[in-house]
Design goal:
With about 500 residues, this protein is mostly helical. Helix content is about 65%, strand content about 0%. The longest helix is centred in the N-terminal third of the chain and has 43 residues, at about 10-50. The relative contact order is 0.19.
């Protein structure tokens, strides 16, 4: 799941729009920087997830370490984003199949794949893991194949001969974003910032390993091993891919901003066409089918497990936690999958407007979740220090903490509040609400829960860091925080 689960349309299609907005160097820097944010989030989660691998982990950590209202708002926001994304993926299936055959009913395709994905998620969880393994394998192999292909083409195997860094000099390494006028430096920075936002959308889903931690065999060993691979996945599958796309496709290529969601808009395909290789578009379109099916499969799985976590935190109706003998929460699966019916909205003439709002909700919800995970880890460290427990005694000790968590929290919050900057240049009320409706919804959920339940922020001294852990007293808490001056200072910093 960590290696291939997040390789999706954001990389296969969205990376092209990123290069068009910021140029090859701007896109590369944007993806690399957001990759650092993702790594900080995964490091924050690793320490909590290996100690306490519970189903629907995000809401449980927020409720136990920060504030029950944060757990409620984050949980429902995260669930709603995946439920909406499921409907979006069902719609994308029709677009992909129309690349080969136009006279196929969208309604029929939506119905067939809605039933198939729902049925797959009602099977024992090992089948979900098997499906995701093979779907992810196809995506990983495709990216590796493209990297090899790109090296060969850049070295001179294509019809244009040796390319090297020609696209970095003509049309250039940085592209000025056209919404900023009369200031070239500011225009290039705006393009870079817009790419950071797009890169964040591409990386979203990395945290799904946290949702699956409660159902992972030997999570103390396997979850840290999976999270350690995050760095290599970010480097090889995202940063390297964007780098080589920037070498093969100039940022002013008109196909990069065609707006299409099938293989014709993929920078992989455009690079192959420029090199004179005609068969690639059909291969990429077939891979996109696996990408969408993998995403839809993960949408229902993660959404249903978040619901179970909300029930455990008394933030959702109890019937949603009902399970079959095989442990599958069938009520939560069916409830989440039912939102796939929203895909039929896109069949109407005004459906695209509704879907633009749903898409924005699901995208920004990912940044909210990342920021919340960083905050939960900061509070988790404070709870350990307040209760006299050393982080050295945990099954996994995250690197560079607490500074890494503060780094991720600060920039994730900054992106959340600035991701809609285009609505201000010039001011556009509709674009403003489209960009910030998810943040508004999150704040409303938090305030309403706070007013109704009158919940209080969790005191680190009484935070529950034991329930749900896998360790015993003699294996988890063998040593206390030192009582020396340096020990007290470090506890205060944490």
């Amino acid at each position: 799941m960590v290696l291939g689960g997040t390789i999706g349309t954001g990389l296969f299609i969205g990376s092209g729009a990123a290069i068009a907005k910021a140029g090859p160097a701007g896109a590369l820097l944007g993806f690399a920087f957001v990759g650092c944010l993702v790594y900080s989030v995964m490091q924050s989660f690793a320490e909590m997830g290996t100690h306490m691998p519970v189903t629907g982990a995000f809401t449980a950590y927020a409720t136990r370490f920060v504030d029950p209202s944060l757990g409620f708002a984050m949980g429902w926001m995260y669930w709603f984003s995946w439920a909406c994304t499921f409907a979006l993926e069902l719609t994308a299936v029709g677009i992909i199949i129309h690349f080969w055959k136009d006279n196929v009913s969208d309604a029929m395709l939506i119905t067939v794949f809605l039933v198939a994905i729902t049925a797959a998620n009602l099977l024992p969880v090992k089948f979900y893991g098997e499906f995701e393994f093979w779907f992810s394998s196809v995506k990983v192999i495709t990216v590796i194949g493209f990297l090899i292909f790109a090296i060969c083409i850049d070295a001179g195997a294509g019809q244009h001969g040796y390319l090297g860094f020609k696209t970095w000099s003509n049309p250039g390494s940085f592209a000025p974003y056209d919404i900023v006028k009369d200031n070239d430096a500011l225009a290039k920075f705006a393009g870079f910032w817009a790419v950071m936002i797009k890169a964040g959308f591409s990386y979203q889903g990395t945290e799904l390993v946290g949702v699956a931690a409660g159902e992972t065999e030997n999570p103390r060993k396997n979850v840290p091993a999976a999270i350690r691979k995050t760095f290599y996945r970010i480097l090889f599958f995202f940063v390297f891919t964007v780098f080589f796309i920037g070498l093969l496709v100039p940022y002013d290529n008109p196909k990069l901003l065609s707006g299409s969601e099938d293989a014709s808009a993929s920078p992989f395909v455009i690079a192959a066409q420029l090199a004179g290789v005609p068969v690639i578009p059909h291969i990429i379109n077939a891979v996109l089918m696996f990408v969408v099916l993998s995403a839809a499969n993960s949408n229902v799985y993660s959404g249903s497990r978040i619901l179970v976590g909300l029930v455990n935190d008394r933030a959702a109706p109890k019937f949603l936690a009902k399970t079959w003998r095989n442990g599958v929460p069938y009520a939560a699966v069916l409830f989440t999958a039912a939102f796939g019916l929203l895909a039929y909205i896109n069949l109407a003439q005004t459906g695209s407007t509704v879907f633009e709002w749903l898409l924005n909700i699901s995208a920004v919800a990912g940044f909210i979740t990342w920021a919340s995970i960083n905050l939960c880890h900061i509070q988790f460290m404070r709870a350990l220090a307040a209760q006299g427990i050393s982080r050295d005694s945990l099954p996994y000790k995250a690197w560079g903490q607490p500074f890494n968590a503060w780094f991720g929290l600060g920039f994730n919050v900054l992106i959340i509040f600035t991701q809609g900057f285009e609505a201000f240049i010039p001011w556009n009320t509709v674009n403003f609400f489209t960009a910030y409706v998810s943040l508004i919804l999150f704040i409303v959920l938090y305030i309403v829960h706070k007013l109704v339940t009158k919940s209080k922020f969790v005191d680190p001294k009484v935070a529950d860091i034991v329930s749900g852990s896998l360790a015993t007293d003699d294996t988890v808490w063998p040593e206390k925080v030192p009582t020396t001056l340096w020990g007290k200072m470090w506890a205060w910093i944490c």
